[in-house]
Amino acid sequence: MDYFSLCLDGLCLLGLSAVHIAFVSRLTGKKQKIWHFVIYFFLLCTIQWFFTTFDFHDVLPVGAELLLLYSVSRLALQNRRFVSWAAAILAVYISQLSFGIVNSVEAILFSRMVGKKLLYPLLLLATLSVFAVCACCCGAVLKFLSLTEDPQMPYVGLLLFPGLFFFAAELYILQTSYTVLPSYISLGEIGKHSALFVMQILGLAALLCTLYAYQHICHSFQTQAALRSLEQATQAQKNYIAEAQMRYEQTKAFRHDIANHLSVLNGLLNHGELDESKAYLNKMKTVSTSLSFPYQTGNPVVDILLSEKLGLAKEITAEISLLLPRPCGIEDFDLCVIFANALDNAINACRLTEGVKSIRISGERQGDFYMLAFENTCLDEPLPPAGIGLSNIKSVAEKYDGAMLTEKVGQRFFLNVLLNISTGKGTYQRNWE
After folding, report:
1. How far apart are CA 166 and CA 113, in angstroms?
2. What GO molecular-function term can you cite, just one (predicted)?
């Protein structure tokens, strides 16, 4: 191998390392570091040296490159398995496609330059053109796809099969049609390479169309999940409001009859019937207790919600120190969304743990803002990606010019929701809009 070829290979490996690491990090939303690039470049050079020295088939180096990029994405960038495979396949496919497109142009235009000194700067220009094409293709893919840790992009494994198909087709074209630059090219060969150029452009277009369809499928899943969540929250609030109205009517009737109850009790005492008086008084106490809620927050909808949710979780210790201001400025429906989703997540997390299970809910007013704090026990494991419930809570917080913050410390999960209660106004854009 001459020095020019050695330098050209080094430039290619350097460019591939930069493009692959930058593309995978941006695609998965992870921050790239210089040592990611250094390690990947060193290992890529090692692979290139090994397979060149021992003269293995050209398919093996590409497979090793794919496995290496997957390992960097999985271990260094901490991406999920399917995400790492999809990102690696797309990155290697785009780089192979860029080489294929430029190779088609080289075969048509540079064949008569073999043996001439002008060929060297032209090959250098073609190599730089490869990375320009690669950058453009990466930018186009990033417009249609994001593989961040986001539940709104489900079933990422669906991308593996079309990605592998495009990758295998491009690899076959490179291995069968572009090996050594011929010194002479016939008119038929020009037609062949022109057809391959068009096919590769169509392959890129097909990939972008596939990603566009996948994006819309994900948005459709997201919309359906959000609508189901909204329907459940709406139905739950209807039930809570209906129960609040029923308890209000019962309380109203009890207050209406309280004079009669007191008259009966007075008559029993006047006649010295103490045992009957105690029994009647205990009965009145039982009736009055049934009309009250175990948790008093100042909002009947929240009171009923807490009673229902926590009443079904007897094994969980609940501590509620919460008094919502009146007027609150927050719609009952939005409070229902916050408390229902937060309680569901907290109860599910507690039930997965062993030993003491506890939930603590508190609230504090800070000027025009009100801070809701939810705390619960959980497993001592990394948090999964945020689900629809937390997304809906975040949407409510943003509606009221607030914010949502989650934190996990050991076996304790903390959810804080800050709301502006001064006006109760805001733009509520749910996550399917």
Report:
1. 32
2. identical protein binding
φ/ψ of 322, rounded to 5, equals -145, 130
Q: Compute CA 174 distance to the chain's CA centroid, rounded to the nearest angstrom.
A: 36
Q: Which CATH superfamily is domain 294-433 in?
A: Histidine kinase-like ATPase, C-terminal domain (3.30.565.10)
Q: Answer yes or no: are the C-beta atoms of 84 and 30 closer than 8 Å.
A: no
| DSSP letter assigned to residue 295 | S
Please say whether the beta carbons of 114 and 107 come within 8 A: no
79 DSSP assignment: -
For the chain, what are the domain ranges?
Answer: 3-229, 294-433
The pTM assigned to this predicted structure is: 0.57
Residue 180: burial class (beta carbons within 10 Å; 0-12, 13-18, 19+): exposed
Residue 373: exposed, middle, or buried by beta-carbon count in 10 A (0-12, 13-18, 19+)? Answer: middle
Contacts of 143 (CB under 8 A, 6+ apart): none
Digits of tens for pLDDT over the chain (433 positions)?
567 778 888 888 899 899 999 999 999 888 888 999 999 999 989 988 887 777 666 667 888 888 999 999 999 988 888 888 889 999 999 998 888 888 888 877 766 666 677 777 888 888 889 889 999 999 999 988 888 765 445 567 677 788 888 888 888 887 777 665 555 566 777 788 888 888 889 988 988 898 888 888 877 877 777 777 677 767 766 766 676 667 666 666 666 667 676 777 777 777 777 777 778 777 776 666 555 566 778 887 788 788 878 877 888 888 888 888 877 788 888 888 899 889 989 998 999 888 889 999 999 988 888 999 999 999 888 776 667 788 888 888 988 989 999 998 888 999 999 998 875 444 433 333 3
Instruction: Give the pairing type, strands 369-377 and 412-420.
Output: antiparallel
Helix (DSSP H) and strand (DSSP E) numbers for the chain? 11, 5
For residue 82, which of 123, 26, 27, 13 has the smallest C-alpha distance?
27
CA 268 to chain centre: 68
d(CA 207, CA 144): 10
Q: What share of the chain is helix, strand, coil (3-state, %, to 5)?
A: 65, 10, 25
C-alpha dihedral, 377 to 379 to 381 to 387, nearest 10°: -70
